[in-house]
Every structure is written in C-alpha cells, then in structure tokens.
Design a protein that fits this description.
- The chain is α/β, with parallel strands linked by helices.
- About 40% of the residues lie in helices and about 15% in strands.
- Helix 16 links the parallel strand 12 and strand 13.
- The protein is elongated, with a radius of gyration of 24 Å.
C-alpha cells in the first residue's frame, strides 16, 4: 500500500489529502501538524476550517485510510510520498522584509524529513513557494540524507476557497514539476499515478520544477490583476456616471477576455494574492528586473487605493465624520462560503473607520468574535504564522461589538457597509432594517449585492461601487 503523508493540516493540506483518501482507497493518507488543537479539531465533529462538502469527505474516510496526527516523525518516516503544505508568510524583518517569503517553516519541515527518513522519498511542494525554493530544499535534504535519495516535485494547488472540494474533484489542471532526469521523471510518474485515479490524463500537466513554481505565482498575479483592473475602472465609472457592471459584462463577452473575475468590489483578499505578488516583486528585484517588479506592485497599489477610497466615501457621505456613529459591518470573511479572514478587505475598512472613531457592529455567519478581534489588533503579515506563534491580543478593540444577526447589527446604525457577498445579504428585509436605523440611513455596498433602485425607493442613500452615484453623494465628493 502506498503511504502518503502531508505536513501541515491547514486550508490546503486538509482538504487535498481528504480528497486523495476518498478517491484512492488503496492509499493510506496521514495529515500531520504540530498544533494539537488543530489535529484534535480534524478528529472531531467540528472541523477547524469551513468549506462546503469537506465535512462529508472527511467523515467517509477518517479512520479508514485518512488519519490526522501530531506524530510527525512516525508518519513522515513511513511515507513514500511526503507533501509539504506549511505556511510561507511574508518576512516581517531582515532581508526582503515586507516582500520576500519567510521559508522558516519550510526549512524545518525539510530538516525533519531528512532526520527521520529511512527510505527513499518523493517530497512534494504543495504550499505556494518562491521560484527556486525546490533548489534550497534539495540542498538541505541531500546534505543531510545519510545515503537516502530524495526527489523534489512542485505540485502547486489552485484551489479557490468556498469551492475547494469541487476544485479538487474536478480540477482545471493538476500541475507537476520535477527534474528532467530519469529519477525526476520517475517521481513525476509516481505522483501522476495518484491523481490519475480520478483526474483525466489530459488535465495532468508536467513541467520542469521552476515552471511549476512560477506558474502558481503567475496564475495568482493574473487573477489579482483582473480584479485591480475592474476596480480601477469602477472609480472611473463613478466619476463619469457609467455602470461598472454593464462595462464588465460588455468586456467579459469578448471571448479573448471572458467573464470571470470581473466583479468590482471593495478589494481582493485571501491568503494568496497579495503575498504571491509581493513575492513575485521580490524575485523580479533580485533578478535585476525593476520595471517588471514595478508593474506588479501597481496591482497591490490599486487594491489598497480601492479600500481607502471606500472608507473615504463612507466618511465623506456622512457629513465628513463617523465619530461615535454606529456603523454595521455585514460580512468580515474575504469572500462568501468561507470563514477565512486572511487579508480580508474588511480589516482595512474597519481600521479606517475606527481611526475616525466609529463604533462598529459586525455580523458574519462564519467568523468568530475572537478572530475579528485578533485581526483588528494584529500587525500586518502576523496572520500567516501558525496560531501558537501569533501574538496573543491582550487588547480588544472596545468600539467593536460582534453580533449573530444582521438585524441586530443594523439596529440604530447610521450606516451599513456590506463587505462580503454572502447570499443572505441579498434577501434581507431592507424595509425592516431601514425602519430601525438612524436617518438619513446609508448603505455602502462594497460587493454590489443589493438592488440599488429598490433600496433608494425604501429611502436609503446608497453607494454601490462603480455605479452611478446617488444625488446626495455627488454633492459630497469623496476626498482621497
């Protein structure tokens, strides 16, 4: 029986390994992590991450050919294939701070593999890593190998949170990069045989190591660039009276461009986009390509501009001050169908409003109060370190309250900001919300989920990103 082990039981490792176990009953899959609470959660009825369909997959396989354990050394030493899916946060100090990836966790995983291995192994990079990481990992493994042979493969994940299980069941492509040597090709074939048990052969792409590593960064950079492009257009739409949804639809019907990732919003979030682009910027700079680095930096600049533009619009619309005003925040996760708050635009929007002394009442169906308080008090980039290494926040933000219902959040509020596109926000009883709010009542739709005309009929002053401005807002231009 082939044995697979994955180091790292997070958003990538957990779901990926669960699906491999489901689709390959002849493979024994172990997911290991040093975090005891996280492994306990994977072994309980309350999984540590929310992802539609994940629960079902885990319960079908757990205890049969899928195991979650903190005994890292045992499972690594027994495995034929070791996936490494640990955090690669952005460095916060030292060389490349604010841009380069911090490979501390990767390196310690490689050293564990070298220390405990008694047989040849295939080591698979599953977390997003900078180009040429494989080379560094290879050096650590070969210099500590005691005669054991390791083959390094790059197998980046292309999962979207909220649809991860479907993405794993039916991927656009599986990418496997390896060395162009007979041993490298043999390792590629071994991993390909795992995926081929459910993925059509023509969707399994094989490349050299560096192409696979760079393809992941490139894919995320291109996706983020599309969002920044439509968000840049949304600012122009507001200035000219155009409607960004109509513009995006017209652009998206061009078969060369396509309709996906053209929704204007308050900005992109998630654990990958910003981090991967900063990484790309750093790699470009290190390779003497400042113009290319500058080009990709602009994608992040537009994203930051979009978030601050949204905050400015809220403050300027409400008589230039939100001091001591109650603002309801609907949605804190970076997108619907996930409880993930990493780099969510909501953090910057909330911090911006708190900077103007607003009182926030936050509702999100999947995010806990503890997580929101941590996010609002944490330093940039700290979120990407394992939980036990993150600073414990002794301070809670007093002007923030967390409620479990949209109507409670909006009661007596001066304004409502919609920051996540949860489906339930489309069907709320906005008449009821309006009746219970301070007047004039404002809705700032950062995700374009509400029917603007309907809300204006009720009596709301509505700001919807990239849509023609309410007469009220025209008289109160947002100053950047």
């Amino acid at each position: 029986m082939v044995k697979v082990c994955c180091i790292g039981a997070g958003y990538v490792g957990g779901p990926t390994m669960a699906v491999i176990a489901l689709k390959c009953p002849n493979i024994e899959v172990a997911v290991v992590d040093i975090s005891v609470p996280r492994i306990n959660a994977w072994n309980s009825d309350q999984l540590p991450i929310y992802e539609p369909g994940l629960d079902n997959v885990v319960k079908q396989c757990r205890g049969k050919n899928l195991f979650f354990s903190t005994d890292v050394e045992k499972h690594v030493s027994e495995a034929d294939i070791v996936f490494v899916s640990v955090n690669t946060p952005t460095k916060t100090q030292g060389l490349g701070a604010g841009k380069a990836a911090d490979l501390t966790y990767w390196e310690s995983a490689a050293r564990v593999i070298a220390d405990v291995s008694k047989s040849d192994k295939i080591v698979v990079e599953k977390s997003t890593v900078p180009v040429k990481t494989a080379e560094a990992i290879e050096k650590i493994l070969t210099h500590n190998s005691k005669g054991i042979k390791f083959q390094i493969l790059s197998n980046p994940e292309f999962l979207a949170e909220g649809t991860a299980i479907q993405d794993l069941f039916n991927p656009d492509r599986v990418l496997i990069g390896g060395r162009e040597t007979p041993e490298g090709q043999k390792a590629i074939k071994a991993l390909k045989d795992v995926y081929a048990q459910w993925v059509p052969e023509d969707r399994i792409l094989t490349t050299n190591l560096w192409s696979a590593e760079l393809s992941k960064l490139a894919a995320n950079a291109f996706l983020a660039q599309r969002i920044s492009s439509v968000n840049a257009m949304s600012a122009l739409c507001e200035a000219t009276g155009a409607n960004v949804s109509q513009v995006a639809f017209a652009v998206g019907t061009d078969s060369r461009i396509g309709p996906k990732f053209l929704n204007a919003s308050v900005g992109f979030g998630g654990s990958c986009f910003q981090k991967d682009i900063l990484n790309l910027v750093y790699i470009c700079e290190c390779n003497g390509l400042p113009e290319v680095a500058e080009y990709w930096k602009q994608v992040i600049k537009i994203n930051d501009y979009q978030k601050s533009r949204f905050v400015n619009r809220v403050v300027s619309s409400m008589f230039n001050t939100v001091s001591n005003k109650k603002i309801a925040i609907l949605g804190f996760a970076f997108k619907k169908d996930t409880g993930d708050t990493r780099e969510t635009p909501a953090i910057d929007v909330c911090k911006g409003l708190l900077g103007d002394k607003a009182r926030l009442s936050i509702y999100d169906p999947q995010v806990t109060e503890d997580q929101i308080q941590r996010d609002l008090t944490m330093n940039k980039f700290d979120w990407d370190h394992p939980l036990h290494l993150q600073p414990m926040s002794p301070t809670t933000v007093k002007q923030v309250s967390m409620v479990w219902d949209a109507y409670e959040a909006t009661k007596d509020a001066h304004g409502v900001c919609i920051l996540t596109e949860w489906d339930e926000f489309k069907t709320l009883d906005y008449q009821r919300i309006y009746d219970n709010m301070q007047k004039p009542a404002f809705v700032f739709d950062g995700r374009n989920v509400v029917d603007v005309d309907k809300l204006r009929e009720i009596g709301f002053i509505v700001y919807s990103i990239g849509k023609p401005l309410d007469p009220w807002l025209k008289d109160m231009p947002a100053v950047a």
